[in-house]
Design a protein that fits this description.
- The protein has 357 residues and is mostly beta strands.
- The protein has a domain at 265-343.
- Helices cover 0% and strands 44% of the residues.
- The protein is built from no helices and 32 strands.
- The protein has strands at 16-18, 21-24, 30-33, 39-41, 48-52, 56-60, 66-72, 74-75, 83-87, 90-94, 100-106, 108-109, 116-121, 161-166, 171-174, 180-182, 194-198, 203-207, 213-219, 221-226, 229-236, 239-245, 251-258, 275-277, 292-294, 300-303, 308-313, 316-321, 326-330, 336-342, 344-345, 353-356.
- Strands 1-4-5-6-7 form a 5-stranded antiparallel β-sheet, with no helix packed on it. A 4-stranded antiparallel β-sheet has the order 3-2-32-31, with no helix packed on it. Strands 8-9-10-11 form a 4-stranded antiparallel β-sheet, with no helix packed on it.
- A hairpin with a 4-residue loop joins strand 14 and strand 15 (171-174).
- The protein starts with 15 loop residues before the first strand and ends with a strand.
Length: 357
């Protein structure tokens, strides 16, 4: 997902923008004027979360119509027919009719992927609903999109646990009971595997839905599988290096690129055959602190002049010009196809991207 602040690269979900919005198509034409919203997110499953002033979060369709009323304290994207929403300081899941189908009982949630979601639950009570104010559907908006810090191991309530649930809300497993912890920056099953931290081995590996390690925990960082490869980090000579592995845990691209201990910011998963990386590159190939794209052999196939470049989606990738402090989009030749003139942008999704001027 495209980042609106290049320094804020540790947020779990970077697909929500604050400011004056529009949804654009791949030509850069405005398709939906979203300037009346306080915040907006990507389209997924045909819906996008938006924040209505003094009311809360709801969802619009691709015609720009508000189809799920703005009555939630926060909201994430619909995936597999369900959308996470925050009600009385607890997360639950609604269907596309706006009906709560998984009770709001969680302190942290991820979107569904491959039929399951990772959630955190503690005995902390729900916040009682506040009395309504005339002209306002809800009176207390809690902005909780960035959950990374509040869900860290050190800040977690003593009685909380990470659970895996299905789309009915049924608990399939307690990761804590298995002495496992999800990487909350991107905790999701992908290609049948979930990256987790082993509290026993003090390293990350990958488990299947039988909750068994199929790739043993030996990595400092590990991201979901994408296009048959997973992005991992290993420590060599006190340097964190980026690598890509296959489903046997073997290096397809060996540890080469220095992440500068910033795995999230300085690398991306493979998308449309390419992965973006920065830091530690040969200075004869590219300037320092600019992003390049590698193919699945690890070869640099595209060098950019940008301080940040994201994954390709729908043939376009977000880029950030640090000097101008503006965002835009490039194609796979590196050509700027949507001008670098926005204060914030998100990846294209379902043919549209939300931008902030």
């Amino acid at each position: 997902m495209g980042r609106t602040d290049v320094a804020d690269h540790r947020t779990r979900d970077r697909s929500k923008l604050d400011g004056m919005y529009a949804y654009i198509d791949k030509s850069g034409k405005t398709v939906i004027d979203a300037s009346g919203y306080e915040s907006a997110g990507n389209f997924s499953n045909g819906l996008a979360p938006v924040k209505v002033p003094r009311q809360g979060w709801g969802f619009i369709d691709k015609a720009g119509a508000l189809v799920i009323p703005p009555k939630f304290e926060s909201a994430l994207h619909f995936k597999e027919g369900l959308g996470p929403v925050l009600i009385d300081d607890k997360w639950g899941f609604i269907d596309k009719n706006g009906t709560l189908v998984v009770e709001n009982q969680f302190d942290f949630v991820t979107e569904f992927s491959e039929g399951v979601a990772i959630v955190e639950r503690s005995s902390k009570p729900k916040r009682p609903p506040l009395p309504p104010v005339v002209g306002s559907h809800i009176t207390f908006i809690v902005e909780t999109w960035n959950l990374a810090d509040t869900s860290s191991e050190t800040d977690r309530p003593a009685d909380s646990e990470f659970l895996v649930i299905d789309t009915s809300g049924r608990i399939l497993a307690s990761l804590d009971q298995k002495r496992l912890s999800p990487d909350i920056d991107d905790a999701r099953f992908s290609e049948g595997l979930l990256a987790v931290f082993s509290q026993e081995k003090k390293a990350m590996g990958y488990i299947n839905k039988s909750w068994e390690f199929v790739i043993q925990p030996k990595f400092a960082r590990a991201a979901p599988f994408s296009e048959g490869l997973a992005r991992v980090a290993v420590i060599e000579d006190e340097i964190e290096k980026l690598a890509f592995i296959d489903k046997q845990g073997k290096f397809v691209i060996p540890p080469t690129f220095n992440t500068d201990y910033d795995f999230l910011r300085n690398s991306s998963n493979f998308s449309e055959g390419l992965a973006a990386v920065s830091e530690g590159l040969n200075p004869t190939q590219t300037k320092g602190e600019t992003f390049v794209y590698i193919d699945k052999t690890g070869r640099i196939v595209l060098a950019t002049e940008f301080f940040y470049a994201g994954e390709f989606h729908d043939g376009l990738a977000t880029v950030y010009d640090a000097e101008a402090n503006r965002w835009g989009f490039i194609d796979k030749t590196g050509r700027v196809v949507i001008p670098v003139e926005y204060e914030g942008v998100n990846d294209f999704s379902e043919g549209l991207a939300v931008v902030r001027r």
